[in-house]
């Protein structure tokens, strides 16, 4: 392996001399690789292209020290079809992808950041509030969560956090949207709207979208907070936007709106029979949303054509979640419903003890939802059979979040809870200074939540001092890499 390092130095020297002499070309260029993404979540597939390697040689591709893929170069030393899957246990932070030629020892590295983002109220447009990539917090260690930081806004917080690219975005009743450093809580920027911000922001393609009580949907630059556009609706917006395929969907008054995500131009509106507090979910070209007219609606995402609506006898302020061809939503009649996503037929309903404002989370064959009766419920996703209930000290309006076998939810008893997702056993609590209306986000080993005490809270293992939060301080050397000869090389 010492030969690899020497070879790298030799190749760089040759390439430099070739540049000086004016005849540098592909064959003499230093080895170089390009990744399809420089940041992604565990289990994501990364495509890799390379050049400057030996002609017709096998190239091993490593994630940190593990040989994960192999590619075969062409006569010009290039390959284009390599890919590797980020390991499911890769911790958040910076890692290295390294390509090494088996014959000549040519080598090249690229950095990749492993992270998970909670992009909107429902985690994704499906609304299922389930982060399947979390690998830091577990049932075994979640009891060690402690406050990493808190940040104060000017009024109570009803909005829920969205987390993207290391930034927490959240609205406040002080009529502002906040962007905070996810690791430290430092304020990066604030952006003013004309009234309260109860809506949860959605982040897509470098833009943050959020609704306000001033009847406007806003689009802000995610990096600077600069206003990119606003779109007017007919009433206050408490609904949280969902962004899919270049379109932003949101509810206001008794209407569902679709706006062009780049320009804010209105694409279509569709009316329900009463006001909408529910937030849309988007799946397979269909927009699902609840209404105060007692119905769940399904619209064609491209045209706004109503596909179906199903009445449950009372208002639906809960936001729908879609999983495995089923739409789940709670109702003010105290029940959780499962609807066929294509036809709207009710598959089952399950009863709680009071109004269900909470939006359901769906994970691993279970559905979790809070109720005003102070309890968090777990139901079988296929049948609606009760699996367990867990009691808090006051009403649960907050929507649960599920990650790595743990369910997190806030309560009006001023506490944020963590429960075992399989059994309902209480694993951890944290106390804020007032009730928790907001819904938590679980990202990169941290839990983020707002409170009506005006504060945003971030919780981490041992307050953030655990080793999982400090990345890879020692990067692998070429000499430490060991090839796996069992890997089959992809051609070119």
Compact summary:
This protein has 492 residues and is mainly β. The chain contains one helix and 42 strands.
How is this structure best described in words?
- The protein contains one helix and 42 strands.
- The radius of gyration is 25 Å and the shape is globular.
- The chain starts with a helix and ends with a strand.
- It has 492 residues and is mainly beta.
- The protein folds into two domains: 2-115 and 471-491, Macroglobulin (MG2) domain (Immunoglobulin-like); 130-453, 7 Propeller (Methylamine Dehydrogenase, Chain H).
- 4% of the residues lie in helices and 44% in strands.
Layout of strands and helices, then pairs:
Elements: H1 2-21, E1 32-35, E2 39-40, E3 45-51, E4 58-63, E5 66-72, E6 79-85, E7 93-101, E8 107-114, E9 130-131, E10 145-152, E11 162-164, E12 167-171, E13 176-181, E14 187-192, E15 202-204, E16 207-211, E17 216-221, E18 227-232, E19 242-244, E20 247-252, E21 255-260, E22 266-271, E23 281-283, E24 286-290, E25 295-300, E26 306-311, E27 321-323, E28 326-330, E29 335-340, E30 346-351, E31 361-363, E32 366-370, E33 375-380, E34 386-391, E35 401-403, E36 406-410, E37 415-420, E38 426-431, E39 441-443, E40 446-450, E41 455-461, E42 490-491
Parallel strand pairs: 2-8, 5-42, 9-35
Antiparallel strand pairs: 1-3, 3-6, 4-5, 4-7, 7-8, 10-41, 11-12, 12-13, 13-14, 15-16, 16-17, 17-18, 19-20, 20-21, 21-22, 23-24, 24-25, 25-26, 27-28, 28-29, 29-30, 31-32, 32-33, 33-34, 35-36, 36-37, 37-38, 39-40, 40-41
């Amino acid at each position: 392996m010492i030969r690899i390092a020497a070879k790298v130095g030799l190749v760089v020297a040759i390439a430099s001399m070739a540049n000086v002499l004016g005849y540098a070309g592909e064959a003499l260029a230093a080895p170089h690789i390009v990744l399809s993404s420089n940041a992604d979540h565990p289990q994501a597939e990364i495509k890799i292209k390379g050049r400057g390697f030996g002609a017709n040689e096998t190239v091993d591709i490593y994630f940190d020290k593990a040989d994960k893929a192999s590619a075969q170069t062409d006569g010009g030393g290039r390959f284009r079809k390599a890919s590797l899957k980020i390991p499911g246990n890769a911790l958040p932070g910076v890692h290295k992808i390294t390509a090494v030629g088996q014959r000549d020892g040519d080598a090249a590295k690229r950095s990749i950041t492993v992270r998970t983002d909670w992009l909107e109220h429902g985690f994704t447009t499906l609304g299922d509030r389930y982060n399947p990539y979390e690998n830091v917090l577990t049932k075994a260690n979640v009891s060690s969560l402690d406050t990493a930081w808190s940040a104060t806004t000017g009024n109570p917080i009803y909005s829920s956090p969205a987390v993207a690219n290391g930034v927490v975005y959240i609205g406040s009743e002080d009529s502002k949207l906040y962007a905070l450093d996810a690791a430290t809580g430092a304020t990066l920027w604030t952006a003013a709207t004309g009234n309260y911000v109860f809506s949860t922001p959605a982040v897509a393609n470098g833009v943050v979208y959020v609704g306000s009580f001033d009847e406007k949907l806003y689009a802000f630059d995610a990096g600077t907070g600069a206003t990119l556009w606003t779109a007017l609706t007919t009433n206050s917006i408490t609904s949280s936007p969902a962004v899919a395929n270049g379109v932003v969907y949101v509810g206001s008054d008794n209407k569902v709106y679709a706006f062009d995500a780049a320009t804010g131009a209105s694409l279509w509106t569709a009316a329900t029979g009463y006001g909408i507090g529910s937030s849309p979910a988007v799946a397979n070209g269909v927009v699902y949303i609840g209404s105060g007219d007692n119905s769940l609606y399904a619209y064609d995402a491209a045209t706004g054509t109503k596909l179906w609506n199903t009445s449950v006898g009372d208002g639906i302020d809960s936001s729908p979640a879609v999983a495995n061809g089923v739409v789940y939503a709670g109702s003010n009649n105290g029940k959780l419903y499962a609807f066929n996503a294509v036809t709207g037929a009710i598959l089952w309903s399950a009863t709680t003890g009071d109004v269900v404002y909470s939006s359901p989370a769906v994970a691993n064959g279970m559905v979790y939802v809070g109720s005003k009766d102070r309890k968090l419920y777990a139901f079988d996703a296929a049948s609606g059979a009760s699996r367990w209930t867990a009691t808090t000290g006051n009403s649960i309006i907050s929507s649960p979040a599920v990650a790595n076998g743990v369910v997190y939810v806030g309560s009006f008893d001023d506490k944020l809870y963590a429960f075992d997702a399989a059994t309902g056993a209480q694993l951890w609590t944290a106390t804020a200074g007032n009730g928790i209306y907001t819904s938590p986000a679980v990202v990169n080993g941290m839990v983020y939540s707002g409170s009506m005490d005006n504060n945003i809270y971030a919780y981490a293992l041992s307050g953030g001092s655990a080793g999982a939060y400090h990345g890879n301080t020692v990067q692998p050397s070429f000499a430490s890499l060991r090839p796996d000869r069992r890997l089959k090389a992809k051609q070119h």
